[in-house]
Give the backbone structure.
Amino acid sequence: RKTALNAQDIRAMKGGQPIVSLTAYTTPMARLMDSHCDFVLVGDSVGMVLHGLTSTLGVTMEMMILHGQAVARGLSRACLVIDMPFGSYEEGPAQAFRNAARMMAETGCAAVKLEGGVEMAETIRFLVARGIPVMAHVGLTPQSINTLGGYKVQGRGEAGDQLLADAKAVEEAGAFAVVLEKVPAALADRVTEEIGIPTIGIGASAGCDGQVLVVDDMVGFFTAFKPKFVKRYAELGPIAEEAIAEYAAEVRARTFPAPEHTFAETAPGSSK
Ligand code: KIV
Ligand code: NA
């Protein structure tokens, strides 16, 4: 993956053309977005989107590595960033380095992402100083759902100053970019203006330096719920279900397989 964009390339896009990103969890989806996205994120949202978990808390290192390897095989241009799952980095810098180094070694990712602001700054500094580019994630941090008390908008009112302090802390610690999730648009614009690394918005503002969405949300494959910040660019879920229903009906009617899908006893050249 020598020609791929790296963390420094993404960092250098601050204030320029908006940075485009989506999540991916599989090789075919990664292939579809490689030429369109600047970075591709293997989010721990994989637990909810593909594994049916009700939060991201049950996602493991093994799941992230397996999906990270799959996505890596589908990318040649986009920068590959992989989420550190809940419990794999919060204990302290040494635990974070051990798991992040394993993630990089086993997937070939360009960077890892972890949730947290001021409280994670020491860990971010430790990783970056030892060769691991870090993308931070502040605002709504789903791994803290049990202490946040719900998937609420973050940083409204007085909490805005704390969110700005979090963004500044991760920048100062050496993060190359920071995701702002579900924060007021004006606050996202203020953070974008006041820090020197790219802000990547999700439920934030078009003024951010870039945007990210969960791909299954935006193509309409994941329909269990739809956050307000998701725009459905396609409705593939119903299309897939229609195809499945039609197949089921044809099997029951014995109209599938048709002659063109079956093989004769002997017919040279028709073995495919
Ligand atoms: O897990 C994820 O998909 C994410 C993005 C939504 C930023 O963290
Ligand atoms: Na995530």
The radius of gyration is 21 Å. Residues 7-235 form a domain with the TIM Barrel fold (CATH 3.20.20.60). Residues 23, 41, 43-45, 83, 137, 179, 202, 212, 214 surround 3-methyl-2-oxobutanoic acid (ligand 1) (CB under 6 Å).
